[in-house]
Structure formats: structure tokens, C-alpha cells
Design goal:
alpha/beta, CBS-domain, 4-stranded mixed beta sheet, 3-stranded mixed beta sheet, 7 helices, 40% helix, CBS_dom, Diverse_CBS-Domain
Length: 141
């Protein structure tokens, strides 16, 4: 049985909701990631969203907003999705497909332990599994 913990990459980093988007971009660069879970108040706190590099570009820069004044919390929307570290890979795929998301935080004992991205799926799943996932996540329906 393959679990979320088996396919995730470790070292996921939080960004507090009060931090600015320019700081978020620096963290993404420093950690070589494209997404950061947003915490309500700080490290290992309640997750209020996920910030992606695309969010910074589309919802801030392209809208003429200043990334040094816009916070991660300003862009946190909806209900954040996550998966338990012991969840089977089928549950991971279902969560990502159902909510059409490409990055999924992995939690163990209420603590962030990693993140699952498209690259992680590509490294650990069969071509058929990847094709099915991509069809559901990227379809316009």
C-alpha cells in the first residue's frame, strides 16, 4: 500500500498570513517550491489557504497591486485542502481530482510534514494513473 507520505516531498514551508507577497516569492525561491501553505498566525498553525507562484503573478502583479504591500492572507480564499500522511495514494488522487488541485499539503498528527505536487505524482505513479489524474484536473468540465 502506497501512502501520501511515500510520495510526498518533505520540507514544506509555511508562510504566515501577515507576510507580504514579495517575502513569499523569496521563500519560494529559497526553497525551490511553487506553493506555500498559508498559516493563520505562524509556524504550524491553522492552515487558511495555499499561495502559489501563479497567484502572486495573476492576483497581484497583473492586477497592478504592490507585492510589498499585499499579504499572503489577502489571497487566501476558500477552504484549504490537505491529506493525512497515511492516506492511500488513491485517496490522494481523489482529493486532487475532486477539487482540481495540483498541490496538496500532507499532515501527520496535525503537523505539516510535506507536500504532494504534480512532479511527485509523475515520479511515483503509473502512466495510466497520471493520465487519469491530468484529465480530471485539467479538463474544462
Amino acid at each position: 500500500m502506497t501512502t501520501a507520505k511515500d510520495i510526498m516531498h518533505t520540507g514544506a514551508t509555511w508562510i504566515p498570513a501577515h507576510e507580504t507577497l514579495d517575502r513569499a516569492a523569496q521563500l519560494m525561491r529559497d526553497h525551490n517550491v511553487g506553493a506555500l501553505p498559508i498559516s493563520e498566525n505562524g509556524e504550524q498553525d491553522r492552515m487558511v489557504g495555499i499561495l502559489t507562484d501563479r497567484d502572486i503573478v495573476v492576483a497581484c502583479v497583473a492586477m497592478g497591486r504592490d507585492p510589498s504591500k499585499t499579504t499572503a492572507g489577502d489571497l487566501a480564499q476558500g477552504t484549504p485542502r490537505w491529506i493525512d500522511a497515511e492516506a492511500e495514494v488513491e485517496a490522494v488522487l481523489e482529493e486532487m481530482q475532486t477539487h482540481r488541485i495540483r498541490r496538496l499539503p500532507v499532515v501527520e498528527n496535525k503537523m505539516l510534514v510535506g507536500m504532494i505536487s504534480e512532479a511527485d505524482l509523475a515520479q511515483h505513479l503509473s502512466d495510466d494513473q497520471i493520465a487519469g489524474w491530468a484529465e480530471k484536473v485539467y479538463s474544462r468540465n
